[in-house]
Amino acid sequence: MNYLIQKPQTQQEKYPLLLLLHGYGSNAEDLFSFAQELPKNCYVISLQAPHSLMYSSYAWYAINFDADENKFSDIAQAKESVVLIKNQIKQFCSELPIDKDNVTLIGFSQGAILSYAVAFSFPELVKNVVALSGYINKEMADENYLKNNFSHLSIFASHGTVDQVIPVDWARKTPIILDNLNIKNTYKEYPVGHGIAPQNFFDFKKFIEDNI
User: Fold this and answer.
1) pLDDT tier at 185 (50, 70, 90 boundaries)?
2) Are strands 58-59 and 51-52 parallel, antiparallel or unpaired?
3) Among residues 13, 81, 108, 122, which one has the fewest Cβ atoms lying within 10 Å of its Cβ?
4) Is pLDDT above 90 for 51?
5) Domain ranges, residue 69
């Protein structure tokens, strides 16, 4: 997979990994734009989704529309991307001095949806999730995910109250689902659309600093 990488600016034996997963129609440069604002003692790596759309835009899975303009996610493609991300995490941990027990996924929109699916499917590979402007789609997770141990997992989820792409009502189900799975979680809303407000950035940055 193509990716951008920012190396740590500290000297230590092993480093946390912050793995950035962009949204539909974007690319690896999008979330990487705030990499310099993230903790300096981490590897920050921004993955680029595998499916090319056009004009340097990419997707983790297709979104299809029917005659009534209803949207449908390609679940098979999403599950393939979940496995790709899992394999990439394992590769980074084997090739770089990364603490395999300190991996944080930071996903926006489609990247957030996949971050949930990766964490549910392979919780042994993920310590924290920052899910921005996304929602939980259980169909994308491994079918046996309910048997997994989530006791070490922490999740920060946020959403805009006037999000015109993913309704905030979808995101409001997040803490209920996570509580039922006994996953430690923080859920916050901000008066914005489908984007990351400055206060949202400061809040999830503090979550990262407190949990890595």
Assistant:
1) very high
2) antiparallel
3) 13
4) yes
5) 3-211
For 84, residues 6+ apart whose C-beta sits below 8 A from its C-beta are 1, 50
| Burial category of 189 from C-beta neighbours within 10 Å (exposed 0-12, middle 13-18, buried 19 and up) | middle
Type of residue found at 82: V
CB of 129 within 8 A of CB of 117? no
Select from 177, 181, 197 the least CA-distant residue to 189. 197
Q: What are the start-end ranges of the H helices in 1-144?
A: 29-32, 75-95, 110-121
H or E segment to which residue 46 belongs: strand 43-47
The three-state secondary structure class of 107 is strand
- Of all helices (H) and strands (E), which one includes residue 205? helix 198-211
CATH number of the domain where residue 169 is located: 3.40.50.1820
Going from the C-alpha of 137 to that of each of 58, 115, 167, the distances in angstroms are 20, 10, 14
Number of domains in the chain: 1
Describe the crossing of helices 110-121 and 75-95 by its angle, rounded to 10 degrees: 70
